[in-house]
Amino acid sequence: SYRQQLTNTRKEVAVDNRVNLALRTKIADTESSKVQLERQLEEVCAEVSKREEAIRRLESDLEEHRAPIAVNRECQSYRAQRPRSEAYSDPVALSLEYEAAVLQQTSMQIERRLQRASRELNHLCELKRRLQDEISTKGRMLEIDSRLLVLRQSS
Hints:
Strand content: under 5%
Distance between the termini: 25 Å
Order of helices and strands: HH
Mean pLDDT: 91
Helix content: over 70%
Radius of gyration: 34 Å
């Protein structure tokens, strides 16, 4: 009957409206989530740049310490060639030993900081990759859901 057909049409329209509303809500939520992920990615990229710069500085610091360490070792090597009668711990020898210890300690501290910065950079790069993957997934979801909405609205 006509009344039954009208009731069925109204139900179909109501269901159609609910589906379209759900799709629009899903698209809006996905877009919002994608924007948040993109902001996080920007922050992570900025942090990656900072860590890379810190690593370059630490590598430079470490390189700068290599020359004084080499000079100290060479001085100690020359001192070791002195005649036995002159080979004793004088203030120069003690100073060279102390200098070697300080240089070695500083070098080890820089190495530890460099290792820590490298681990942090690796962690950030992994986070960056995951964020990029999530953003890509959100983009694909948006594309599919948007096509679906267009298809539903055109029929």
